[in-house]
Amino acid sequence: MSETSSHPGWVSVAEAARALGISETAVRKRIRAGTMQARGERGATQVANAVAEGAEPSSAPRSQPMQPGLPTDPNLNVARLAGENAELRARLADAQADRDRWHASATGAIERYNHDMQEMRGLLGREQVIALGATAASTMQDMPQERDTATLRGDQPEVVSETMPTVSAPPWWRRVFGGE
Length: 180
Hints:
Blueprint: E1 10-12, H1 13-20, H2 24-33, E2 38-41, E3 44-48, H3 74-142, H4 149-153, H5 172-177
Antiparallel strand pairs: 1-3, 2-3
Helix pairs in contact: 1-2
């Protein structure tokens, strides 16, 4: 990497971007965020040479900006990650408990629904039996009673139901052949 300024350890924004493997815009954003040291000299912004200070471009994850000048203790990172892991495990346990509670609630609701539907089917069946029984009874009352064959011959007096009209007509053969 070439250094264009008269001060060693400082490079242009473009050179810093190439050295870190990121865009110039990303370098400027890091400068604004305060994660990279920069200075303005003769109208051009210069960045502290992080690569020259021993930082490798691939050593820092892309999601976390490089922070030159801050000590990175591996034990601190492990402790931080262990804390995050514990928090995520607790959140997962809460989510699983919520899932189990909702599942039990839904299962109970389905069982109540099925029981209620079975009870309603039974009631509907009873209602239909009652309705058919009432219809059959009323139909039987409305229908004229059958006459005995002796009644039709004239041997006995006619017995007529209360709902049948009381009109006495001579038998058909008397009407056809006449006579008594």
